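Late entry, written up from scratch paper. The run itself happened at the end of the previous shift, but nothing got recorded in the book at the time, so transcribing now.
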Amino acid sequence: MNKDFLKKVVWEANYFLKAGTSTSFIYSSYLPIELLEERKSKVAATADLIRKINESGSPMLLPFRISFVKADAAPVANTGRGTRAKVAQLKAHFTKPEASPYKIAPPFKVCTSIWQIPGTKCSFYGTLGITLKEGMPPSDNGDLVIFRTADWKDVEVFIFKGLGKPNDDACLEDALQYVEGRSRLG
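Output as recorded:
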């Protein structure tokens, strides 16, 4: 697959583990250096950051806060993708001020099961599920998500629009090759 094509269909982000939590991650590109202590100040600061992100012209695809639930932390059912065992799940929902092309219908959920990419140590993948109709559970939208992390404290996220085709390892391999050239992990 052409590198220029992949550049046009990818969205990249970094999330880091929020202090004092085991599953809550925060979008890192706009995080203030010092986290404010008062609850009202935190909420106002977060809303201000989300507003700045929305106005930046580079929209967020995933929510500002997401959760990675690792399989060793909670039971994760092994369904889909054949016999590969799930490593984790991504779960999130958009808040009122957030804007995203994935924020389509209430309750504005985003999720995916996460599998390890065979033959790699720090690369994982899934296909994005979003709420498409009000009151319905999230449905797979066909977007491939690759996660790169060595320790599940700092996670690089790469979303490839339209490349999450079931049983298409060629798309996964091409996307992984692109990601390995861009990732801090190499």
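The first helix runs from residue 3 to 9.
(Scratch paper discarded after transcription.)
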